[in-house]
Hints:
Phosphatase PAP2 family protein; transmembrane; single chain; PAP2/HPO_sf; 12 helices; membrane; transmembrane helix
Amino acid sequence: MHEGLPVPVVPGPSAQSRPRARRGLAVVCGVVAVLCAVGVWLLWRVFVDTWAGQRVEDTALDGAAIGQGRLWRVADPVLDVVSVGFVAGGILGAAAVAVVRRRWSLAVQVAVLVGGANLTTRLVKQDLLDRPVLGVGADYGNTLPSGHTTAAGSVAAALLLVVPPRARPLVAVLGVAYTALTGVSTLVGQWHRPSDVVAATLVVLGWTAIVCGAMAARPGPAGTATAMLRRVDAPDPWWASTRRTALALATLGVVTGGVAVLLLTRTWAGRADLAGRGAELLAYGGGVAGVVAACCLAFAVMLLLRHAAGSRDETASTPV
């Protein structure tokens, strides 16, 4: 009898719990960022600030000379790409994708992510941490974190930030490949030690978490109750592929991380006498495995955080 009157829509539990879930995600992102900062400090404390850690990584550095001639043909072009121009181009390219998608805030977040990560690496390496002279190897000063790895990883993370949901799993996989290749290339060239590269990966993950946390914490989109309910209740068509990719990367990261722990534990146990090709290969192999593990796990976490932070307005019922 009142057919002309609109039927009021009362938000259900899913809509009511949405702000709480967003706040929870922001807290999770904050925890990830803090853990990354702690991780960087622990890497420095164990592998840079102690004689045993320096001894193990110096052996890995010596091991990089094995087969270096052939490997450098691949590593050299990879490292030549990374420069100030590369970082600037990465920022502009990612910002352009954000503008094309009409996601204006993402253009700013890209600059925050890439700029924050690279400035943090520079500050930590040159001002906050040092490398004590403990009689191990040559004294080149502190090299943790790796600037090349930070640059490569931050540009890959920026692209992960701005591409549409359907493209993120592929970008995450490519990001792992490129960041790991850059990190391993710095090992091949004896530019960096394994802890430098892993620390750089943590810096990138930390800044990605900060940006995703800010994205989750900002107010939700305006709209009617009906529109909000439609967004909240719509199925997420991208979650399945995102979850599978993150799980695959995490699995690979755990496996390679286990290999790294096994090899480096054996190297650490024999740190008093690490002379010889076998010890060098053991330390070098453990370092390479550690770099691959760090990249896989970092991008798995970044993929999940980015998906969760953007799921509010990137459902099937809204343009992506």
